[in-house]
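CORE FACILITY INTAKE
Project code: CF-77B
Contact: R.S. (postdoc)
Sample description: multi-component assembly, two entities in total
Requested service: structural model of the whole complex
Turnaround: standard
Below are the sequence entries exactly as provided by the requester. Do not edit them.
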Amino acid sequence: MRTSLLLLASVAVLGGCTSKDSGSAAGTGATGGTVIMPTPGDAVEVFPPFVNDQIGRWVQDMVFERLADLKTGLVTVGDKGFAPRLATKWTWAPDSLSIAFSLDPRARWHDGKPVTANDVRYSFKVFSDPKVGSPTAPNITNIDSISVRDSLTPVAWFKKRTPEQFYDLAYQLMIMPEHVYGSIPADQLHTSPATRKLIGSGPFKLVAWEPGTRIEFIADTANYRGRPSLDRVIMTPTDAATGATQILAGQADFMVAFPVDQVPKLESSPVARSMVDPQLGYTFMAMNPHLAKSMTAPNPVFADIRVRRALSMAVDRVAMLHNVFGNTGLLAHGPFPMTAGYADSTLRVPPFDTTAAKALLDSAGWRAGSNGMRAKDGRPLRFSLMLPSTSLFRRRYGVLLQEQFRKIGAQVDLDVVDSPTTIRREQEHDWEAVLQTPGTDPSITGSKQFWGSGAIGANGQNFIPYSNHKVDVLLDSAASAFDPAKAKDAASRAFQTIIDDVPAIWLYDVTFSYGVNRRITIPAPTLDGWWMNLQSWSIPADKRIPRDRIGLAAAKP
Amino acid sequence: MRRQLAARLAQSLIVVIIVTTISFFVIRSAPGDPFSYESSTITPAIRQHWREQFGYDKPLPTQFVRYVVSVAHGELGYSFQMHEPVSEALATAVPRTLLLTGISLALSFVIGVIIGVLQATHSGGWFDRLSSAVLLFFYSLPDFWGALMILLMFAYWWPVLPAGNIVDPVLHGYMGGWDAFVDRARHLVLPVLSFTLLTMAGITRYQRAAMLETLPMDFIRTARAKGLSERRIIWRHALRNALTPMVALLGLMLPALLGGALFVEKVFAWPGMGLLAAGAIAARDYDLVTATVIVGSVMVVIGNLLADLLHLAIDPRVRE
């Protein structure tokens, strides 16, 4: 009891003495509050040119800003789907080969220095420098250069006019301060301690990153777009079961990927509630048309489209979805997430029909033996399905798929491996079937990087490898159409062609089930991520608890 | 004696070098590398660029020579997982694990030895049977599940203690000295309780067996004939004799101080050596994996040396 009273008193005194926001310090104002987030792991990278993991992206988007933000429709063609951010407005050149951005003169870095056009030029230089090796570099190859017209006017020059040239620049490029990072040689950015101490212009400041332990942010109270309602956000890498316990016990506040089987406990919890949020990702079972470790020799099972189609028809996707996700899952409709602006839920995927599936296998020469398992010319209908051990959902799907394929006479060997092994074997084409979840960006170009023939090999993500000239043409048409409706139509035809070729079985769209403390008010999540409107989260004054009343004072080291 | 110790140290050094060399090659022979994490935005070309930048594309012998030279200069390399030099990552994680497992192991031995002695002196009685059944229950629990049950019991069903982390992630930095101490102690209770309960049973069984072997010996009968009190006979004469196998057990368990707490660290989000090593292996964080193996093998060496020294201290026959 004494400890609690002392603690409350010291917190109140500290907050009262040091916070710039008296309301926050007293815990009665419009601003204030601390959100603790158990996360499934730590950030792999936080310096924007290297960020490619989920948690790193959260950190990046809380601390740094883009020139413009995607609006809720996630339309990436032209600039109509964008809202001003660091740039208050932009002006296209008559030939559309350059865009002049007007930076917000109020914008400041977290160290107080103004955001300038030089910073935009520097950011492009870093992202595109081959010595840096940024994963974003392939997405900004159409940007030729960025020049500085005056301190608040960077001008982006493009190599050619494309529908998504604005998106390439405004969305892909995070703006970083040259005066902080400019002196670090490009090939040392990866290991420089300076790139762990982020200075951005976003709504939150990174105050501590203790790898494996915590990432702590506080509100940037001097932010030119207004300070966030919350004072503090702390992410702690935590095991899923422990994180769920912390949420249910009120010791933590927000958990992404709350364990699905624990969600019913949230419904009856007086402390926490659940929220479901679809993401820009989808999961499918890819089937390798070639023999393992070969790019030419046909796979005796998957080279035949009739077998691929039969396997697809053997799968009760709806039942599996309910089995794994309960009522919170979203069915995949093809090679795209339904959250993308170009998604189309009317496309025809092979229906669930085991009778037709068996007939197709019969016609392909795969006959059932006395034990019900099929074979052709003495070769059993058998293949291995590679699953990453780190994904609970994919492991569960693997078991369900194994059982469903068994019912039509196909034997599946589950091959559970860790993540680095998955990546390595995909690169070396050492797999037969794999459950894959690509996180895609909102643009059609993102689809080209996964399903286009040009993405086969070292510079793309098309590891299957899937190739269809018609799809390439249609995706090119979609990516080069300036009319969003025409782009969507071409994309739909490309996706239908891919679905008809059955390179994969479309299983589910990625959704997050969040566990949220009931004292937190969260506006409707945006499609590009829950963290994009974190600055609008709030905790009403009458619901605040001791940890909400710390204010903005720095902790003792 | 000194020559023996020096020879032992020399042998130990060779063991550490061999183990380090093996781990260096084994981890690099596993599929993947530090840049093989799952991400749909990194092309194979970019991964290759990073491999070249950090020398992971070089032949293994070349990498090994580089590593040996680096270690000889006192540098254990760079951790891509922790984004800091390996030595700094270890300097943060090792004390955390030593705090957790050191307290747990001390408690396990003290309580385990006491219960083992009481079981042996009341062999076949109700205390012996009841405590054996209870300890066998804890011993039979799968480690991870046992820790999880303890977490649920005291952090969710009866929420009196924090569910994980080494300190309160928010308030600790604002606490005064005493409050900070209490906060740290509260966060220690559940992981220490889990680790202690799950390791104590084995120690108790060893101690009970050793005591049962000692109690019928001649020198105990002589002590009784000389009229010594039963308490003095058991706790001074018999226990001292029966502690010899426990010293060997301590030597074996000491390395577990760093590696054996993985399940506790995982369940209670305790960022120590176990989690560090497991994460490093999963992420193919080569330098960190090799460094944790070096630390582990050094702990084995220290454990064995310590056991030898303790053996010398409590058993006069060895000194002679």
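Facility notes:
- The mean pLDDT of chain B is 84.
- Strands of chain B lie at 78-79, 84-85.
Invoice: internal transfer
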